[in-house]
């Protein structure tokens, strides 16, 4: 898998995880952020930092009507744009970055959102996460987007121990087949929202619990609690 040594047992575990994700969620590529053009997706993704996709979609519904062209964002008044995107949080930096991003797109790239990751991260407000959203959704380039859901669920699944999103991205690139990178993004975001939430994950309902390191610990905890409930005298006995 992508040139990294993985034990046969671990390889089988990862293959089972992938198989179950594909079975339950499918492999269709879809984007949770509403957009009609590549540059709209770029701006929506910048707005999505520390903000839910639902909130961003609510904001961009009117935002893209008020600013229908990339040039409109490039020439926007920053204070006014801040008011337009206020509810997405961090609105001052986001407004500043969106204007600078739009200006560079026009000046350097003739208004076309670039495909190369190095070009993308040269834009204001664009890091690897945003760049990979564009590469995967616009250009169908295999890429892994590490958002809060992907970070949390991937760690619980035992696919990474890292905290840094870039290190997590490279861990997943090493362990997952290239063709699975884009589907994995969508599947894990869906799974993180519906089952493997940050608080009170629904481990008992999870179809991945058999292959999940976090799920196994959860199962062991329940087993110990059950034994202690049946026989309080064994509490504290190793």
Description of the molecule:
The structure is a single chain. This protein is mostly helical and 238 residues long. It folds into 3 domains: 8-24 and 146-194, no CATH class; 38-137, Hypothetical protein, domain 2 (Endonuclease III, domain 1), CATH 1.10.340; 203-227, no CATH class. The protein is 58% helix and 0% strand. The protein is built from 12 helices and no strands. Helix 5 (78-84) crosses helix 6 and helix 9 packs across helix 11.
Keywords:
single chain, 12 helices, iron, mainly alpha, elongated, Endonuclease III
Briefly characterize the structure.
This protein is mainly α and 238 residues long. The chain contains twelve helices and no strands.
The overall strand count is 0
Determine Rg (CA atoms, Å): 21 Å
* Largest sheet geometry: none
Relative helix content: 55-70%
Report the total helices.
12
| Whole-number count of domains | 3
CATH architecture assignment of the largest domain = Orthogonal Bundle
- If you consult CATH, what is the topology of the largest domain? Endonuclease III, domain 1
As residue ranges, the low-confidence spans are none
Summarize model confidence as the mean pLDDT: 92
Distance between the termini: 39 Å
- Write the H/E string, N to C: HHHHHHHHHHHH
Subunit organisation of the chains? single chain
Topology of this structure?
Elements: H1 8-25, H2 38-47, H3 53-66, H4 70-74, H5 78-84, H6 91-109, H7 117-120, H8 128-137, H9 148-156, H10 165-175, H11 181-194, H12 213-230
């Amino acid at each position: 898998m992508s040139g990294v040594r993985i034990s046969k047992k671990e390889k089988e575990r990862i293959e089972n995880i992938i198989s179950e994700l594909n079975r339950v969620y499918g492999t269709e590529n879809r984007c949770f952020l509403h957009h009609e053009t590549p540059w709209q997706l770029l701006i929506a993704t910048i707005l999505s930092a520390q903000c839910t996709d639902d909130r961003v979609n609510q904001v961009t519904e009117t935002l893209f009507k008020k600013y229908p062209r990339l040039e409109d964002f490039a020439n926007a008044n920053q204070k006014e744009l801040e008011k337009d995107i206020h509810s997405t949080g961090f609105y001052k930096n986001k407004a500043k970055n969106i204007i600078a991003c739009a200006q560079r797109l026009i000046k350097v790239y003739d208004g076309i959102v670039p495909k190369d990751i190095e070009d993308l991260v040269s834009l204001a407000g664009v890091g690897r996460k945003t760049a990979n959203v564009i590469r995967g959704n616009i250009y169908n380039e295999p890429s892994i987007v590490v958002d809060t859901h992907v970070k949390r669920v991937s760690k619980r699944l035992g696919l990474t121990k890292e905290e840094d999103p870039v290190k997590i991205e490279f861990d997943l690139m090493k362990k997952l087949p290239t063709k699975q990178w884009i589907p994995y993004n969508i599947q894990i975001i869906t799974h993180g929202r519906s089952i493997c939430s940050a608080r009170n994950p629904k481990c008992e309902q999870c179809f991945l619990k058999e292959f999940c390191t976090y799920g196994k610990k959860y199962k062991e905890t329940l087993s110990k609690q059950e034994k202690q409930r049946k026989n309080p005298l064994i509490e504290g006995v190793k």
